[in-house]
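User: Hi! I'm working on a homework problem where we have to compare a predicted structure to a textbook description. Could you give me the structure for the chain below?
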Amino acid sequence: MDFSLSPEQRLLQDALATYLARHHDFEARRVLLVDGQRRAAVWQDLAGELGLFGAAVPVELEGFGGGPVETMLIMEKFGEALLVAPYLECVTLATALLRPAGAAVRDTVAAIVDGRLRIAPALHEDGGRFNLGHIETRVEGEGGDARLSGAKIAVAGAADATHFLVSARTPTGAAALALVAADAAGLERHDYGFIDGRSAADIAFVDTPATIIDVGGDALPVIECAVDEAIAGLCAEALGVMETALALTVDYARQREQFGKVIGQFQALQHRMVDMRTQIELSRSLTLMATLSLDAPRAERRKAVSAAKAYVSDALRIVGQGAVQIHGGIGTTDEIAISHYFRRATVMESQFGSAAHHLKLMAEVSG
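Assistant: Happy to help. Predicted structure tokens:
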């Protein structure tokens, strides 16, 4: 099988890498974490100047006709730069959730693509762990006259969202997706930050006006498929995080001296860094397999995605902890880049499900 990139894909990677090097290096990222206006400017650059938001969106929905491979290429570069913006949630996952509704959401998806709308999916609830089918939020009514009641937790990108895409149960017990304006009546938001610096929120809905998105029946299979797409993207982001963490560690080991020698000459540390490289290369193979399996039947897709996420979760722990331990105490300080990669790796270990969760899913699908 030919895994080489097309000229368009290489151009996409190069353009994104150039932009991130100029506008999202480590020092710029530290400013973006606290400056909402700068974050908004970067978001618009990604949408307008680079056109990234439509890269994996079908042409019939006002996108550029790419797919999961384009998402993989984008997310790996975002991992290298530790992108502050919630691209994975508010672009990749949001458009994947809306896509089955077809022409009915064309204008909505087009507004995501050009950066006018930022839709944050709200799919998780207290007590549900990683179970997407644990839905106690309720929605009543039809079309644009629906009303939503319930609560969601850990909604990434909520602080800057214009809308939320919420999983809920109808009176018949079927799962549904409801689109809610961020300023809708009866909506309360509690903002906080993850340890990696990204923003999130817990959200409560009390008889909140909403619009039900018609995805052609029960929405749970749509939600599971869309989250699998996001998981494949997260694994690609993890590759960028781990590659950069290892590069920083190797560079540090070539400079730091102990007992009259640079520590990179110590065989035990050389073995540790080789183990880290092995984890990354195996993660890359499984991530590619997951990405190429997203159009496969449910059981095949589920096994490929869960296999990748289970392995990548463990690899993130091994690479992240190894990088910090080789750096020593300085590796935990906020001023040193490796501490930020370690924090992001730690969050990603359990994002969209831990290794144990995905091993369980694999067992269930395999029967």
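For your comparison, note the following. The domain at 220-366 is CATH 1.20.140.10 (Butyryl-CoA Dehydrogenase, subunit A; domain 3). The two ends are 30 Å apart (CA to CA). Good luck with the assignment!
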